[in-house]
Amino acid sequence: MENIVEEIRQLELDTLSAQKWAEAGNIEAWVHKYLLSGTGGRSNPAFSEGLKREKRWWNGPVELPLTELSPAVGPEPGLEYEVDPAYWQARTSQLAETFTTPTALPPLIVEYRAGELSIRDGNTRYGAMKLLGWPTCWVIIWYNTANDFEAHSKIL
Asked: Pairing between strand 116-121 and 81-82?
């Protein structure tokens, strides 16, 4: 577990690298690089393929308050993917022990859904950040329509 942050840095999958890719107009490519990297022993090719099926619009990385994000995974009843509270506590605590600064981590990947920012990748990182008391985190937001992108971009 302790090597995950170092692995992220070496693979250039942290927020600072995402910012560089975004400045070059390549944030979508960075997202797919991250999802296919297997960082921390995990990779998500199905998520990457799903994002490629339709045109997407992207914002980020942007720093947002944790309170503006809606987790999809966690121990709370009613979440899209409910997990065992003991597992969640152990996993988020382990991650929190390795975190140093928000920019050393990959941005969370969130989907704009009718005014809501739903965390689609990074729910355990989000949980660890909450444990640490961090008020904000970095996110990359995808939109499914140009109208959503334009409307939300005006208020970011």
From this structure: unpaired
How many domains does one find in the chain?
1
Tens of pLDDT, residues 104-115:
999 999 999 989
Phi, psi of 140 (to 5 degrees): -115, 130
| Entry pTM | 0.91
Confirm if 39 and 5 have CB atoms less than 8 A apart.
Answer: no
Structural contact between residues 122 and 14, judged by C-beta atoms closer than 8 angstroms = no
* pLDDT for the residue numbered 89: 97
Q: Strand locations in 79-124, DSSP E? A: 81-82, 108-113, 116-121
Alpha carbons 38 and 34: distance in angstroms, whole number = 8
The pLDDT value recorded for residue 1 is 46
The domain in which residue 17 lies consists of 4-155
